[in-house]
Design goal:
This protein has 304 residues and is α+β, with helices and mostly antiparallel strands. Helices cover 34% and strands 28% of the residues. The chain binds adenosine-5'-triphosphate. The site of adenosine-5'-triphosphate has 19 residues, from helix 1 and helix 2.
Length: 304
């Protein structure tokens, strides 16, 4: 096998608690993460040039608010260099990224791209590394990358690297609405550090409720410690949440450090009404109707 096309799926946080801080400044977290059906497509090609790692990208015909570069700062390049440095025999790689996940949106687009590159190169190289090994090497690329290796529904703790899969499936219609600006994750944490009020929430109760299919239980216990920071940085967030709830959402919250708002709906009709209203009020142009995905489904790569 000389090439693969991997899907790098977005995630949402069904709850995010900041539980402490490490001596090196990293925040300690307890988060429920869920893969959703919005993805970047990544073509990964082994080349004859033994050392060259390069990439280019497109935005699937759309015009993003924030463009990213294809240089050493791109997580695809960083991931490729990392795994290639650990291979017994060196190979060159060319990567083509088609970006659909909005950038700096709280949906782990960059982390998921990095994880997909690790999975893809590992597949081309004959699965030299186990998933555990991929997760271990990926921590240096970012706290969400280990989760993105397999994705699905998981409890993620530590700085994000302690991953416990949750044996349950979330059955709801999800709407993702991203206001027209990004939030830098460090800026959101900085705001939290200056206003460290945590209004509670109960991650274990959220997990129990997901297991029971108790949507009201999820709504009553869900909480994101970065929600206030995101609302401060992007003042249109409460308006988006309000529209979702007026149109029948069971709940609406910010994912990660925002600014994307997700809503859970019991019917496609309500979801579609919320989507139309948010668009017509000019609050968001990036709006996606998605479902929750399990890891098996999420990482069906197209391998050639
Ligand atoms: P998280 O939810 O993990 O905090 P996010 O969704 O808020 O992440 P990303 O879209 O992953 O944010 O982007 C964060 C930053 O990473 C961007 O501002 C961008 O400069 C940088 N970056 C590097 N490579 C990529 C990539 N392949 N895709 C997106 N962003 C990238």
């Amino acid at each position: 096998m000389k090439s693969v096309i991997e899907r790098a799926y977005a995630k949402i946080n069904i709850g995010l608690s900041i539980t402490g801080r490490r001596d090196d400044g990293y925040h300690l977290l307890s988060m429920v993460m869920q893969t959703v059906g919005l993805y970047d497509s990544i073509g990964i090609y082994r080349t004859n040039d033994r050392y060259e790692i390069s990439m280019d990208m497109d935005y699937a015909g759309s015009h993003p608010e924030e463009e990213i570069t294809c240089d050493e700062s791109n997580l695809c390049i960083r991931a490729a260099k990392l795994i290639c440095s650990l291979l017994p025999e060196s190979h060159g790689y060319y990567i083509h990224l088609t970006k659909n996940i909005p950038v700096a949106a709280g949906m782990a687009g960059g982390s998921s791209d990095a994880a997909a590159v690790l999975r893809g190169i590992n597949a081309i190289e004959g699965h030299i590394f186990s998933s555990d090994q991929l997760r271990a090497m990926s921590v240096s690329l970012g706290a969400d990358v280990p989760y993105c290796i397999d994705g699905g529904l998981c409890l993620c703790e530590g700085i994000g690297e302690k991953i416990t899969p949750i044996d349950a499936s979330l059955k709801t219609h999800i709407l993702l609405a991203k206001p027209p600006c990004g939030v830098s994750t460090p800026a959101a944490y900085k705001w939290f550090d200056c206003h460290p009020d945590s209004a509670g929430g109960d991650i274990n109760a959220v997990i129990d409720s997901i297991r029971k299919g108790d949507m009201k239980g999820i709504r009553d216990n869900i909480h994101n410690d970065l929600e206030d920071a995101a609302r401060h940085l992007v003042p249109s967030i409460p308006d988006i949440e309000e529209i979702m709830e007026e149109k029948g959402a069971i709940l609406s919250r910010v994912t990660g450090s925002g600014p994307t708002v997700f809503g859970f709906f019991s019917s496609e009709e309500d979801r579609s009404a919320a989507s139309s209203e948010i668009k017509s009020k000019g609050l968001c142009t990036d709006i996606f109707s998605v479902e929750a995905l399990t890891p098996d489904y999420a990482h069906e790569a197209e391998r050639k």
